[in-house]
Amino acid sequence: MSSAPGGAQRPTGPGGPPAAGTGPADLVERLHDDPTVADADDLAAELSAEERPEPAGPVANVVIALVVVCLGVATVVGSFGQNVGSASAPAGGTWPFLIGVVLTGLGLALLPLARRTADAEKFTRASLLVVAGVATMVGFVATIGVIGFEIPATALVFVWLRFLGRESWRLSIALSLAVVVAFYLIFVVALSVPIPHLF
Amino acid sequence: MDLAPVLDGFTVVLEPTNLLYCLIGVVIGMLVGVLPGLGPAATIAILLPLTIGIDTVTAIIMLAGIFYGAQYGGTITSVLLRLPGEASTVVTVFDGYALARQGKAGTALGIAAIGSFVGGTISIVALSFVAPLVAGFALDFGPPEYTALALLGILLVSTISSGDRIKALVAAAAGLLLATVGRDSFTGAERFTFDNLNLADGLDFVPIAMGLFGLGEILHALEERHHAVRAPATVSNVWPSRKDLRQSSGAIGRGSVLGFFLGILPGGGATLSSLAAYSMEKRRSKTPERFGKGAVEGVAAPESANNAAATSSFIPLLTLGIPANATMAVIFGALLIQGVTPGPRLVEDDPELFWGVVNSMYIGNILLLIMSIPLVGLFVRILRVRATVLAPITVMITLIGVYTVRNSVFDIGLVIVFGALGYLMKKLGFDPGPLVLAFVLGSLLESNLRRSLLIFEGDPTGFLTRPISGTLLAVFLLVVLGPLLSRLLARRRATSDRPAKEPV
Fold first, then answer.
1. C-alpha dihedral (A152, B214, B205, A179), degrees to nearest 10
2. What is the DSSP string of B334-386?
3. CA A121, B323, B406, A71 torsion-angle sign
4. Which helix or strand (DSSP H or E) is residue B220 part of?
5. Is residue B183 within a helix (H) or strand (E), and if so which, with residue range?
6. I need a surface site. Which of A181, B10, B74, B249 has the fewest CB within 10 A?
7. B112: closest CA among B127, B124, B100, B126?
8. Is residue B163 a contact partner of residue B429, using CB atoms and an 8 Å limit?
9. pTM score, whole prediction
């Protein structure tokens, strides 16, 4: 969605103007002349001074397009498992069949654009943080039914603060305990939500 | 027009509970607008579980407050820190921050607040008159019209969304596909449930919206390296001078009207209208060179427009049952949870809800005008709370919140799956907005399509022979083919220009 400050090529949509310049100054100039919503989003990201990874290459774009085609084909196949019916007698499979055809077509349309689009980002080492984040949540949902929400929740908040957020040990421990106590008081004591809990 | 239901609406709003939730909504909205990161759609999605226990009118009043409150909040950070909290306040940065650097931050904020108030109010008044008309017109709509309308709505939202158009359409198709999971409403046969009992009743809207918008955005932000927030400009003398007011009054008026109309269009909404209002003011100004260097009109026009649009985008939702943008899709979902299906009958069948929500916007706008300026200092302090601290708390609210909706651990798993999907989509350039919107409209679209085909006995040209559905489909084709044609023309022009441009 955004480009590195003063750096890489800006993404171009099909039919959009060629990616002329980068950096906030150029974006501002373009917004003055011919504003689009995508430019506004880009500028919002630029201005918030967050660094996003570089765009992924054409190979990744081809893979994305193929995944979309596969999803479309799978949907078409799946709709035959229902009953595709006909235009005069639509059945359960008619609508999924149409969606599958459209998806396949859109996936194929993405293929020739693989070289020109730059709106997909590269997976970097920072992406491992996301994997870790998802893993804590999966751990949470896997254990909540067995040991209640308190311990998994404390662990989740602690990991996010200390290891994903690089906060200090003291703040991480104190805040993770405080958050869980607050949640316990709100959901279990005050609202008596039947969430699995230990105490 | 019968005024009794309108006045009844005011009595609904003035009930203490509703007033309280309106206040809560606008305060949360302002906070969200101030904090960059989570947009209004994400916040409303995360807070959906809050609406379960409370009355429908009250719930929607609060959610609406979050939406238009966010437009106010985003302005504050745009002006003071050059950080637009929302995409819809991006253009405010140009002149707002320039004014702040000249020591006129107060003027910019004051003008923005007044412009937002005027824009919102003009839009509400217009909404009060237009919405019943549209609803009355739509009462005659049959399945073909609804099919065409839903298709057009999804297409427009995909076209105008940020990012690649084809990818947005892929997201929309995926949303339609997800909507088919579960029992077929016509035959009762199970579709795409993979023999999972939890999927037999279909996917629930709440985990999808919370996952894609909420968790997806939080995960996506994990990859970012955050920089220290700049020290904000000091705010003094909030009340704009008479000269500033005179200078910007035209811009406020024009911005409000433009915002109102762009907000009604599917896919229009606050961002597009603020951009359009800014460029319109610059074009018709006698001194366009002042823009970007601290012109009050450059703050007044987009701020009036984005608030007017935020308000008027309720019209298609409340009168046709077609959400015009991602945030409206989430509010649509909230209404469905409450057992209310928005549509043309809403104004007549449920006037308390309709007028209660519409009139709450008057109150909300007044609350915002009163609060936004004195609270500036507080908001600047809130900005110092680090994203790394907010993220795990938001994650916990999401995971526990989604459980409370149906008391289902399966839904926690679902919200995580859609969170991961939302991250991947954002990462790979797919806007999740069209997916959620298409999911919400999916079953409506399918059942109306099937009903239409039965009416037409399988002849799809039947759509074209009915005036309204025919017109809507013609617009649909225009939107699909328009960009292709213009690209072809541009290419032809480029090839014919080339010899002239390249002298030997």
1. 30
2. HHHHTT---STTHHHH-HHHHHHHHHHHHHHHHHHHHHHTTTHHHHHHHTTS-
3. negative
4. helix B216-222
5. strand B182-183
6. A181
7. B100
8. yes
9. 0.85
Q: Indicate whether B178 belongs to any domain.
A: yes
Partner-chain contact B395 A156, CB within 8 Å? yes
The encoded tokens of residue B467 equal 């005036």
A57 touches chain B (CB under 8 A): no
Closest alpha carbon to B445 in A164, A112, A60, A90:
A90
A14 shares contact with chain B (CB less than 8 Å): yes
Question: Residue B476 domain-assigned?
Answer: no
CA distance A132 to A126: 10
> Would you say residue A6 has pLDDT above 50?
no
Q: State residue A122 phi and psi, 5-degree precision.
A: -70, 145
Q: Would you say B257 and B78 are in contact if contact means Cβ atoms under 8 Å apart?
A: no
Chain B CB contacts of A134 under 8 Å are 219, 416, 419-420, 423
Judged by CB atoms closer than 8 Å, whether chains meet at B184 and A92 is answered as yes
B145 alpha-carbon distance from chain centroid: 24
Domains contained in chain B, number: 1
C-beta atoms surrounding B452 within 10 Å: 22
Burial bucket for residue A194 (CB in 10 Å: 0-12, 13-18, 19+) = exposed
Rounded Cα gap, residues B258 and B86, in angstroms: 19
Q: Which residues on chain A are in Cβ contact (under 8 Å) with B439?
A: none
Q: Does residue B480 belong to any structural domain of this protein?
A: no
Q: Is A182 on the interface with B (CB under 8 A)?
A: no
| Any domain includes B337 | yes
Does residue B50 contact residue B337 with C-beta atoms inside 8 Å? no
Q: What is the pLDDT of residues B462-494, one digit of tens each?
A: 888 888 888 888 888 887 777 777 777 777 776
The domain in which residue B225 lies consists of 4-455
Q: Which token pair is B297?
A: 């009109």
- Coil/strand/helix, residue A102: helix
Position B181 pLDDT exceeds 90: yes
**Could you tell me which residues come within 8 angstroms of residue B457 by beta carbon, excluding any fewer than 6 positions away?**
A88
Indicate the range of A144-158, B48-62, B149-163, B299-313 predicted with least confidence.
B149-163
